[in-house]
Design brief:
By secondary structure, this protein is mainly alpha-helical. It contains 21 helices and no strands. Helix 5 packs antiparallel against helix 12, helix 7 runs antiparallel to helix 15 and helix 9 runs parallel beside helix 12.
Length: 490
């Protein structure tokens, strides 16, 4: 890359509208990344589906997915050490690949993160309903609980940043002390099976064979390790971002990955597999095991821990997605009103816009089977974004448009190998997630539901193409063209 106008840096220096307040430390960035990936939200949302589809033995797929996602996180860390700006991967695609690539990246990024937020709100609403004694509902009642959950997350994003940071930290403590502590007790004192149970029963679920079951398990596991890129979307609000953001990306995924793997092992070894085979997206397979092993007194504290973790996850996702919206609006790819910030440097308009779209997405929850489709698109869209980001990074690295040695994180020759492997993995996992599997959704599912990921993504790409061909940018003064460099951040 060559040096060019430092437009955004000039805006930041003058304190003009569109400038975010730098108030997050390494710990804050790390906790936001941890809460967004969320061991509780990630694992509890998929553990029942994994067992139903595979029959069991999905632990190796979960471990493999984590290892490969670490490669993707390495590329994200390398990019963030050189281009730490609001919007993360959207800005990198625009910076390295040009305005058109950035527009496509932004459309994929925003739509998939909003789908991910909708899924988290729906799932969080299920746990909220259980906590207040209204579990077992379906359809309208769960949509209402999801909307209540979303309202709480919205308020937490609109209040003073200190309140938000406190809640996120509390969520991390709840996950580490609560869920991890419970997993430790289950593992050491309440195991019902030997370690071979982690590798047993593969192919005895709805999947037609062991290979199909493993590939399905790998696709479902993808949900548990997305969200670490939240650290990069808030880089503009992080102190010393070139040093701190890469560390936050690595540490958040490593911490979450360790907790998810251990918790999944502990729960699998403590569960009766039949318990999980009768679960759905609207049921809670975990609490009965906790109550059976620890007693009825443990139910309320455990549910409280899960609720705090889900609220931290949902609130982080609102912040995560709203910063992508804000960055796109500041570039002219979305209405300029979404780039406005308060006197405290918070993009409240972008937050409200993000929440509105995600709340509308909750209407899919009126059909229980449609929830799985939203989950699949949220996961598949993020992996499409991983493939695009690592692909743009690989192409510009090979063509000399991007020089990774200029960043704080220097990987040398390893960088190219890691980037190549991360790109190939992201493409494979996207195809794997998008692949139509009647046995993973419903044997009677309509064709459009089976092909939901490519259909929705294709529609988004088509509308984006129309925008690129006929749309007119509204804020050319803030557009950075290929060959121009991103502002330096201290």
């Amino acid at each position: 890359m060559t040096d060019g106008p430092d437009t955004l840096a000039s805006v930041a220096a003058t304190g003009a509208p569109g400038t975010l307040h730098r108030s997050l430390s390494l710990w804050n960035s790390l906790t936001i990344g941890f809460a967004t990936v969320s061991p509780v939200a990630g694992l509890y949302a998929i553990i029942g589906v994994q067992t139903v589809v595979t029959g069991g033995g999905w632990f190796p797929a979960l471990a493999l997915c984590l290892v490969m996602q670490m490669l993707v996180a390495t590329v994200y860390a390398e990019l963030s050490s050189q281009i730490p700006i609001a919007g993360g991967a959207y800005k990198w695609a625009r910076q390295l690949g040009g305005a058109t690539a950035g527009t496509y990246a932004g459309a994929i990024y925003v739509s998939s993160t909003i789908a991910m937020l909708t899924t988290t709100a729906y799932t969080g609403g299920v746990w909220l309903a259980i906590f207040f004694g209204s579990g077992g509902g379906t359809g309208v009642s769960l949509v209402i609980w999801g909307a209540v959950f979303m309202l709480v997350c919205t308020v937490l994003n609109l209040v003073h940043v200190s309140v938000f940071k406190f809640l996120i930290s509390l969520g991390v403590y709840a996950e580490i002390i609560g869920s991890f502590g419970v997993a430790l007790l289950l593992f050491f004192f309440f195991r019902q099976h030997g370690f071979t149970e982690l590798f047993a029963h593969l192919g005895t679920g709805t999947a037609p064979g062991q290979t199909a079951a493993f590939l399905a398990a790998l696709a479902i596991s993808g949900w548990a390790f997305i969200g670490f890129d939240a650290c990069s979307t808030i880089a503009e609000e992080t102190c010393e971002p070139k040093r701190m953001v890469p560390r936050a990306i690595f540490l958040s995924l490593c911490m979450v990955g360790s907790v998810v793997l251990f918790n999944s092992a502990a729960l699998t070894l403590s569960f009766n597999p039949d318990t999980l085979r009768h679960t759905s997206a609207a049921s809670d397979p975990v609490t009965p095991v906790i109550v059976d092993n620890f007693g009825a007194w443990a139910e309320t504290p455990f549910l409280a821990i899960v609720m705090i973790a889900f609220l931290a996850c949902g609130s982080s996702m609102v912040q995560y997605t709203s910063r992508i919206v804000f960055s796109m609006a500041r570039e002219g790819s979305m209405p300029a009103v979404l780039s406005r910030v308060t006197a405290a440097g918070a993009p409240h308009n972008a937050v409200l816009f993000t929440v509105l779209l995600a709340t509308l997405g909750l209407l899919f929850g009126l059909n229980d089977e449609a929830v799985a489709t939203v989950l699949a698109f949220g996961t598949g869209g993020l992996y499409a974004m991983f493939a695009m980001t690592t692909g743009v990074g690989l192409y510009t690295r090979l063509t000399g448009r991007w020089d990774p040695s200029l960043g704080e994180l220097k990987l040398g020759a390893w960088g190219l190998l890691i980037n190549t492997a991360a790109f190939l993995w992201s493409v494979f996992e996207f195809v794997n997630i998008a692949w139509p599997r009647p046995y993973a959704i419903s044997p009677d599912a309509p064709w459009w539901q089976l092909w939901a990921v490519p259909l929705v993504l294709g529609s988004i790409m088509g509308m984006t193409t129309l925008y690129v061909l006929f749309g007119k940018p509204t804020r050319n003064n803030l557009l950075l063209h290929p060959g121009e460099s991103e502002p330096s951040q201290k």
